[in-house]
Design a protein that fits this description.
Low-confidence stretches: none
Number of helices: 4
CATH class: Alpha Beta
Number of domains: 1
Mean pLDDT: 88
Strand content: 25-35%
Length: about 180
């Protein structure tokens, strides 16, 4: 594993997570996922609007409802990955084919001060700059954020919009109704 900027125990870090669902009550899955993350020391700070996107890679499945959030956590990247997987399990995610339907999918996009390259976890997320369902909501909440070695989120979005096929475009569906006062 290549790693820079290891988190010291208890140090709060800003992270960005992508959440998506294409099975069952998609909105409820996202809302519950955010609440479950908070129970595991992953506090929401800002949430994008909701975006709907066609499935990518395996096209014969329902559309996804997606959002991106800025969170704060004291968890290490590895602990955060475990927390994300635990929340997915709590929400009923089952093991299926890769890129297949998901009750809830949580991707670690960025983790402040970290660069990781390992079998289980890579930060920044290796495919985020080819996914409009990540870049559009991320640009909404952090357009000037620099993705290490890649450029600003706004620039990555412009590039992706030029090169990705029209079929991958996403639709803004509205605000994320979390039913809480402290996450926006």
């Amino acid at each position: 594993m290549n790693r820079a900027g290891a988190n010291q125990a208890g140090e709060t870090r800003v992270i960005y997570l992508g959440l998506g669902s294409n099975m069952g009550d998609r909105l409820q899955a996202l809302r519950s996922g955010v609440r479950e993350l908070e129970e595991l020391s992953v506090r929401p700070v800002a949430l994008s609007s909701l975006y709907e996107s066609p499935a990518k890679y395996i096209l014969d499945q329902p559309a996804f409802l997606n959002c991106v959030g800025r969170f704060e956590t004291t968890l290490t990247p590895e602990e955060l990955l475990d927390a994300c997987k635990e929340v997915e399990r709590r929400m009923g995610r089952k093991e299926r084919e890769r890129f297949g339907p998901r009750e809830l999918d949580i991707d670690i996009l960025l983790y402040e001060g970290e660069y990781l390259s390992a079998d289980e976890l890579s930060i920044p997320h290796p495919a985020m700059d080819e996914r409009l369902f990540v870049l559009m909501p991320l640009a909404q909440i952090a357009p000037d954020l620099e993705v290490p070695g890649r450029g600003s989120v706004a620039d990555l979005l412009k590039r992706a919009e030029r090169i990705l096929p029209q079929e991958e475009y996403v639709t803004k569906m509205g605000e994320f109704p979390l039913d809480r006062g402290d996450a926006t």
